[in-house]
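ok so for the tutorial part 2 we go from a plain amino acid sequence to predicted structure tokens. step 1 is just haveing the sequence, like this:
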Amino acid sequence: LDPDYAQAHAELGWIATSYDSNLSAAARHYERALSLDPDNIYVLAGAAVLLKALGRVSDALVLEEYVVARDPLNPGVHINAGVSYFHTGRWDDAIQSWRTGLRLSPGHVGIHYFIALALINNGEAEAALDEAQKEGFEVFALAGRTMALASLGRRQAYEDSLQQLVDAWAEQFPAIVARVLA
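step 2 — the prediction. this is what the tokens look like for a chain of 182 residues:
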């Protein structure tokens, strides 16, 4: 209805990124949205998602840190920044961002799992096992637990947990099972 409405272009960019996997169309929409309203944090947050999809995680993180500073009560921006910190190997920053997101949105699915992954990468497998137990979404809880057990060298417990994961979730969530196996 309004070709000069920045948020509409940002939403179209998000759809092109997330649903259509059409990154060039997404880039055109975000470019237009940013030209119309360069300080709009909704537009900037969406542009960061596109940058991550393009493999430009460090650039995305710059935008996400800007958005977090301007919208500190939005759990989604903390969670998205956590993903970028994770992908740049900044485990402590990822954990801190995700914990902030959880304080703001305690029931957010998957965050305890992602914290567990960061803890494993940070050499804190026992803490990761504890964190995975807090995850409310069963497949993520089991996946996090399985990886923590592997990191702890608890071979039999790992194999039992892996078998449980495969039996219960391999068909519905093969990518999660593949991540655990990797």
